[in-house]
Amino acid sequence: MFWLNYFVSIVVVGVVLIALTLIARGVSRHRLLRGPGDRTVNVLESTSITSSAAIHVIAIGSRRLAIGVSHETIAVLTDVPEVSYPCSEKIADNFIAVLAQD
Length: 102
Known about the structure:
By secondary structure, the chain is an alpha+beta fold. It folds into two domains: 1-36; 39-83.
């Protein structure tokens, strides 16, 4: 019985040490402290041009950039202004009003 308790204790200590190591790695890389919306770089849109080239619209902080990506290079193509569609808000309001009538 002594050896069984000893073995279980060693296994528990090993599992705790592995868990603490994984948590320390996650915290040091800031993975555990950030939510999914807290990313610095987000890919907003992508489209393939050829089998080996694509254009991506990315957001880095408040900037939006169009970048060209191929097997060999990545190039910034242009800044992308934020587009606002005021008419879409009016359409949404009208749609909500129609739903509210029922």
